[in-house]
UniProtKB/TrEMBL annotation:
This is Alpha 1,2-mannosyltransferase, glycosyltransferase family 71 protein. Its main location: Golgi. It comes from Rhodotorula toruloides (Yeast). InterPro entries: Alpha_mannosyltransferase, Nucleotide-diphossugar_trans. Signal peptide: none annotated. One of its GO terms (molecular function) is alpha-1,2-mannosyltransferase activity. The keyword Ligase does not apply. One of its GO terms (biological process) is mannan biosynthetic process.
């Protein structure tokens, strides 16, 4: 908080000047030239401390297994003197991975977590298009580009390994980047807004365990993020971000760039049964551009020291429902077991960050309104944006499990806003008993609302969230078995 208190106009302008000078220097040195873009598509990881190389090895084994059948070139970056042992190196290389070192980086003294080579890894990789994954972020579906899979003339059995189509997602092709959401939002008093010259955005923070980016379009933003995360500077910039995760988002916003978002907000992967405190989430289940689960980021699971294993690791998740695309919700009975997806198949809605940020209760954003208005899935995008305003995440004790996480839905409207809505409805309602307006308003239900254009919305928990069992999800029903078959471990030490 001392950093926050010491921030003034001179300091803000000085930081902006440093950023501009650095980017101009890199441009003058040829750091943004086409020769720096790289070629092709590939996976990038960072590893080195504790068991992170072992976790990357598990991911590569899974991608090369018959379960996913999607081998891809990969590069693994580490700090100096943190290379794997000869046996692990040999296994990684046999699976098509290249090991590289960020020679000019060093770990922070006394820090258990050191994230700050992530931008360097993406920039220095040989790939033009990069899918970056944290070592504990496990794919649940094929990551192959569709062009490679379609050229196989696969059998009917191989249809199960059809790629997600992430590289071909509309928002990614249009913008050259896709970022995935975290559970939290950046506070309005964070000085970063002044530093990058952007009004506070009511949007999700970025969960940097998954990054899809085209360097030919965003090498400048990556270089700015690398500068912020350099060994000399990262401890300062991490005051504005929980580790590295939001540095990429801040770099994009500073350069007035935008990114695509997945088709559904992050889901909470959980144990198959309740603990004494109920639903116990331990993995971030990130979705693809359609809203289907694709990445199991086991960031809390690896901290559970015992009690989980094959048969009791995953089994269900809580997710945001896919909103219906019709303006009206009339005649749509909804029960807890009702699956909206059965009525409306998931589609690639080409959603970017501005379309779901800073939205009003009519679902229209401050920026990007023109992208939403008239969109083929306008109502679905608007409902999603409003529903996400009410998502709240929280940690809780999990009995024998130290920590669990879950999400809930709260009506995002303030008490004053809901009371104002009640009064508005009551003032135009029949009142044969001549009750005072306040008494009449007290019984008005405003959990169901309608905008002047006919857009209808429900602020009900069961309308917004649902628990899905993995046995009912094609990408997930065999995930746990395949994970353990290739040697996966759920208890770990590294970050």
């Amino acid at each position: 908080m001392f950093i926050y208190a010491s921030m003034n106009t001179s300091r803000v302008m000085g930081l902006r000047d440093e950023m501009v000078r650095y980017l101009r220097e890199r441009e003058g040195e040829g750091g943004m030239s086409t020769s720096e873009w790289g070629q092709g598509k590939g996976l990038v990881f960072t590893a080195g401390n504790a068991d992170t190389f072992t976790r990357v090895l598990t991911t590569l084994k899974l991608l090369n297994s018959s379960h996913l059948a999607s081998p891809m070139p990969a590069e693994i970056f580490s700090f100096p003197r943190e290379e794997p042992d000869a046996v692990t190196r040999g296994e990684l290389e046999r699976l098509g991975a290249t090991l590289r070192v960020v020679e000019d980086a060093w770990r922070g003294e006394g820090r258990r977590k050191n994230y700050h080579i992530k931008a360097s890894a993406i920039i220095r990789s040989s790939f033009r298009e990069v899918l970056y994954l944290d070592s504990d972020n496990i794919p649940a579906g094929s990551l192959l580009p569709l062009e490679l899979w379609e050229g196989r003339n696969g059998t009917e059995e191989e249809e199960a390994t059809r790629p997600a189509g992430l590289w071909e997602a509309k928002a990614y092709k249009r913008l050259g980047a896709m970022f995935w959401p975290d559970y939290w939002r950046t506070h309005p008093i964070n000085p970063i807004w002044a530093i990058i010259g952007v009004p506070c955005r009511d949007e999700w923070e970025m969960e940097a365990g998954t990054i899809l980016i085209d360097k030919s379009k965003h090498l400048d933003a990556l270089l700015l993020a690398e500068w912020m995360m350099s060994s000399e500077r990262f401890e300062y910039w991490f005051n504005f971000s929980d580790g590295d995760k939001d540095i990429f988002r801040f770099a994009f916003l500073a350069l007035r760039k935008r990114w695509g978002v997945p088709g559904r907000y992050v889901s909470v992967g959980a144990l198959p049964r309740d603990t004494i405190s109920g639903f116990c989430g331990h993995s971030m289940l990130q979705n693809d551009h359609l809203g289907k689960p694709l990445f199991v980021h086991a960031n809390l699971l690896k901290q559970i020291s015992s009690g989980v294993g094959k048969g009791f690791a995953w089994g269900r998740h809580r997710q945001l429902r896919t909103p219906p695309s019709s303006l009206s919700l009339q005649g749509r009975p909804l029960t807890p077991s009702h699956k909206l997806e059965l009525e409306e198949p998931l589609t690639d809605d080409d959603v970017d960050c501005d379309m779901v940020a800073d939205v009003g209760y009519d679902g229209f954003p401050v920026r990007g309104r023109e992208r939403v208005k008239g969109h083929p899935q306008e109502a679905r995008i608007r409902r999603r944006a409003v529903w996400e305003k009410g998502i709240r995440a929280g940690f809780k004790r999990g009995g024998m499990f130290a920590l669990c996480i879950d999400i809930r839905f709260d009506d995002p409207r303030s008490h004053e806003e809901t009371w104002g809505a009640k009064l508005s409805v009551a003032s135009s309602s029949p009142n044969p008993s001549r009750l005072p307006l306040e008494a009449l308003a007290a019984n008005v239900d405003v959990s169901y609302t309608a905008a002047p254009d006919g857009f209808e919305l429900k602020f009900w928990q069961d309308e917004v969230l649902e628990v899905v069992h993995w046995k009912d999800v094609p990408r997930l029903n065999g995930f746990e078995e395949a994970f353990f078959e290739v040697g996966g471990k759920v208890n770990g030490e590294g970050f």
